[in-house]
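Recall the central idea of this unit: under ordinary conditions, the amino acid sequence of a chain determines the structure it adopts. In this exercise we apply that idea directly, starting from the sequence alone.
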Amino acid sequence: MMSEELATLSQFYTLIIDFFVNYSFQVIGAIIILIVGLIISRWVGRLVLRVCLKHKVDVTLSNFISSTIKLLLIAMVVIICLGKFGISVAPFIAAIGAISLSIGLALQGVFSNYGAGFTIILTRPFVVGNTLRCNDVYGVVEEIRLAHTLLSTEDGEIITIPNKHIVGEVLINSFENAIVEASIGISYSANSDQAIALIRAQLQANPGIVKEPAPQVGIANFGDSSVDIAYRYWVPTKQLFELQFQVNGAIYKAFNEADIEIPFPQREVTVKHEKSRE
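Accordingly, the structure predicted from this sequence is:
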């Protein structure tokens, strides 16, 4: 038993010695190539990132380009290292291709989001800080990522929209402001010019309302029991409801002080009495 174990150990020792004698230079060369390749790929990735940022390329796109180039260089270095041992990389490439196809079919929804994000970054239909409305979703753009876009609301909510639901859809971009459209009815006996002047004065007096473009006020409709005066103005998106409530309260107070009647719907009901037959 002891002799057999010694023979096995001797064979193993001989195998190791033969391996290092025959492949020592290949192993050392592969290790050196791998280390140098990793250093160069990291350096090239950082260089590409600096160049992109210097030319004011979007940060997300710059990171994506830098990471892609770095990974491609690392893959090339690994292939060269395998070649130093005489290993054919063709089967590995074929296997990677088959696996990539399967993953692509399983994750085509995820990849479509990345493709859409890449399109958004290249075409730049909106940027961080813009006010975006898409598919009944509304908010300020906080961050644009390759997979999704983040919006924030006045209430502090964060809305995550997959990028594939943005590309190809109708987008409304009002940049940093949002528009408020409202109306108020006055009686037909009231002075419409006075009412319009009061509304315009309240809009001009509010410091939170954007001065350019200027607010708009005018008669919008003639209702059954009122003359409807509409007013439109722009406000910072994150203060939309706050300023809208302030303006509505100020207009209502000004109308009461000026004795301008805000009518409510009225209906006249006529009751006909049928004469009784004798």
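The longest helix spans residues 2-54.
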